[in-house]
Each structure stands twice: as structure tokens, then as C-alpha cells.
Amino acid sequence: MSVLQAFLCGVLYYLAIGNMPFVGLWTLQRPLVCGLLTGVILGHPLIGAMTGASINLVYLGFISAGGSMPADMALSGILGTAFAITGHLDAKTALSLAVPIGLLGTIVWYARMTYGSIFTHLADRYIEKEQYNKIWRANVLYPQLVTAIITIIPCGIAAYFGASYINGLVKVLGGTVLNIFKVIGGMIPALGVAITLQYIYKDDAKVFLFLGFVLATYSKLGLLPLGVIAGLAAIIYMQVIGSKNKNEVSFEDGGDYE
Amino acid sequence: MNKEKSLISKKDLVKSWLIWENFPQTCYNYERMMGQAVAHVFVPASRKFYQNDPAKKKEMMKREIEFFNVHVEFGSVIIGMIIAMEEQKAKGKEIPGEFITSLKTSMMGPLSGVGDTIYQGVLIPILLAICIDITLKGTIWGAILYFVLMFAFSWIFSYANFMFGYRAGAEAVMDFLEKGILNKILKGAEVMGCMVMGGLVSSYVKITVPLKIVTSTQTFSIQKQFLDVLMPNILPFCFTLLILFLLKRGWHSLKVIGLIIVIGILGGLFGILGV
């Protein structure tokens, strides 16, 4: 990996986590997307996208609500993919390396959430002086400069040195250790699914989990056709429920969001 | 409101929306969350409201930099709505500033709740699952498709929501929330989400038992001759349900990762588990 490539990995991380335009949190932050872009930077778009996709399975339903960030999936996607490409790792091994990296990355998020209030007070002062045109500096310019520094540098360094380090590590580790990595990598997507299910596995919807599983297991359908069937199932369900409860006015309160 | 001339132009409104959609979390922080982003959104309006009354203008900006936190796309209806209310106030209507603030804060809870569940709990996982599946079949189009669809949906939805909030005003927005339309959509989304997740487990959670029982006459493979006969992928499915159970019992995801690592090390070391 060249210095330029490592730097670009850092910039990619900054764009994904800095919440600049293009709705980074919903798009660039996902390992599926930043894995592809890491692959583009390193000259292997397809391997990048596929590694990113595998890593993304863990973070399927990661919910960041109220400013919390359970794991930094962008860092995990970028570094996991970079290590996979430069170290010739398979996706499952890259995955079990990427998850701890993602946990480490949350430091950046919580640092941002902390120093951000300094700039809010700057904005307060602009308002006090009636310099409304300067508010953008406090909201965008200064905080983003700091964020760029604390994202580009560590991620770039990790990508540059990590890659050669991982290369040697894989050679040293024997078959059994790599096998353990693969076993963990095979199991860990269950966490991503379970976290998603936490929010949607309730009441009448529960049985559809079993339906989807059995259908996919025996039909070997891809997820796209299965998604279409699931959409239709949802519509049928709504219609059945709708005709059953026509006279009941009150809807469920659905208030158990966390 | 329809007959009177509005103080800000469509262009200003679009500018405000662009600021909201692009910079809501550029300075996200514990103290005010998105508060100063709202103040930033009000900058175009500040050039038009209270032209001859700097004191009142400052009062408005101070009101809008207070604590605010909401789901960006769902919450944009609130931003549109408060711009409309501030405009009415600037025109001289009797709207107490505290009323705007309390309305704003009382709406951000429900909209965050529904928004986070629908976006992060249903929409993103389903779209991701499908696009990951497409990608892992060997094409980069899955990743591109996800980006384009998510981006387009977020922007269109946020814009429509913002303009609805501005035009309809507070009453209509509250009315819409109380009718429970969102809850109905949520119910259908849960059904669809559960079904796709079931399919995802079948394809992408991999646990097998390579153990074989060797007797003098034959070898009995636990995976092939017992588990697969029972139902293929039954082990990954049960494992996923176990993790769900643990999470519902209050386990932190870190603890679950720890458990998976322990099981993986023991299982891999003794050859009980494989991929």
C-alpha cells in the first residue's frame, strides 16, 4: 500500500463518519459502501465490495439512537477491507479482525460528541454579536477540521502499517488459529441479525421469521426475490388485519421504542 | 396564511432544507445535539424576518439554538413547521416563543422513535440484506444500488417532509401523527423485515459440526446425516434465536461478541465447530 492510498483510506473514513453532505450515516458509513470504495482505492473494487458486504452482515441493524454509537462500522469496513486485500485474507477472517477495530473506532465518535460543544458556544457568541452569517463556521467549518484531523491521521497510519503487519501475522499463524477466525466469522453475522430482530421481532410478525427461514432454506431463493415475496406478505397481512379490525378504532400505541 | 404574502421565498426554503439535510450532525455534541444546526438552518430566514427589529431577531436565533435532537429525515417535518411558525410570529401573530420551543421538543421524541425504528430497524436492514446478497454473488452493483437507493430515498423523503411541515403547519402534523398511520406502516414493515431476516440467517450465518462418529462398520457424520436431515441450517437459526434471547434479557452486544469468541475458540480448537 502506498502512502497516497493510505491517505485516501483516511479521507474515506473522514467522509463516512464526519457527517458531511451525502447522508454519510446512511450510506458511506455502511461497510458495504466504504468497502467498495476502499477496494477502488486499492485497485480491487470487487474484492472490496464483497469483503465490505461480509463485514456489513455484523452491522445490519446497528442502531445509533440519541447520539449513541455502538460500534464504528465505517472504520471496521475500511480497515477490514484494506487488510483483506493487502494481506490476502478471506472475508471471514477479515470479518473477525474488523469487529474489534470497529469497537476501537467509537472513541472518535465520542470525542466528537464531546468537543462539539465548544463550537456550540462559539455559535452562541456569534448570535450575541448578531453575526448570523458566521454561524456556518461554528456548525461546519471548525468542527469538521478537527474531525478531519482525528480521523484521517489514525486511519491512514493504521491502514499503512497494519497492512504489512497483517501480512506477516497471517504467515505466522497456523491453520488452527485461522480456522478459529473463520468459525467466529461464520457465527458473528448472527449478532447483526439478532440486533435487527430486537426491534421488529414482536407480536404477529414473529412467525414470518420462521416462514422466511424455511422458505429460503428449501427454495434457495436469493434475497431479492425473497424481499419481494416478503413485501407482498406484508401487504396481505395488512389487508387481513385491516378487514378484521375494521370496527376497532384504536391502534396499538407502539410506544415501546428504545 | 395562504392569502398573505410569505416573508421568505421558495429559494430560501430550499436553502434552509439543504442546510438541514446536509449539516445536521456536522457538529453533533452532547450539550445541544443538533441545536446549532437548527440555528444554522435559520440563517436564510434571519435575513428576511424582523428586518427592522434586531432585538427580536436575536431572540429568535437564541430560541432556535437550544437543545434539539431528532431523526434527520423524519424530523425535517418539525423544521419546516417551526419555520412557518416563526414566520407567522415575525408577521405579528401572537405566538409565544415558549410555545414554539415546547412544540419542537414535544415532537422530537415520537418522530425519533418512529424514525429510528423504520429507518435503522427495517428499511436499512432489508435494503442492505438484499444488496449484500447481490454483492456476494460477485458484482459491485449491489453496493452501488444500496448507495443510490438510500441516498435518493433520504433526500426525497426529507424534502417532502420539510415542505409538508412548512405548508401544513403544526395542527396538521399533529393530526397526522395521532391518526396512527405511521404505526400501521411500522406493523407491515415488521412483517417484511422478519421474513427477510429469516432468509438472511439461512444464507449467511454459518455454523457446522464437522465431528464424525467412527465405528468399526461405518462413519456417521453428525452434520450430514443428522442435522441436515432434520433441517439444513437449523444450527445457525437456533444460534440466532439464542442471541436474540440474550439481547432481550439485557445482554450488551459486547458481551455477545465475547461469548461468540469464546465459543469460536473452544469449538475451533477441538474441531467441534467448522464453517
Automatic annotation (TrEMBL), chain A:
GO cellular component, one term: plasma membrane
Cited Pfam families: EII-Sor
Localization per Swiss-Prot or TrEMBL: Cell membrane
Membrane-spanning ranges: 7-28, 40-62, 74-91, 97-119, 140-163, 183-201, 208-237
Main subcellular localisation: membrane
Keywords annotated in UniProt: Cell membrane, Membrane, Phosphotransferase system, Sugar transport, Transmembrane, Transmembrane helix, Transport
Membrane topology: Multi-pass membrane protein
Biological process, per Gene Ontology: phosphoenolpyruvate-dependent sugar phosphotransferase system
Name of the protein in its database record: PTS mannose transporter subunit IIA
UniProtKB/TrEMBL annotation, chain B:
UniProt keyword Membrane present: yes
GO cellular component: plasma membrane
Cross-referenced PROSITE patterns: PTS_EIID
Keyword Hydrolase: no
Ranges that cross the membrane: 67-85, 117-136, 143-165, 226-247, 253-273
One of the GO biological process terms: phosphoenolpyruvate-dependent sugar phosphotransferase system
Tree of life domain: Bacteria
UniProt name for this protein: PTS N-acetylglucosamine transporter subunit IIABC
Taxonomic path: Bacteria, Bacillati, Bacillota, Bacilli, Lactobacillales
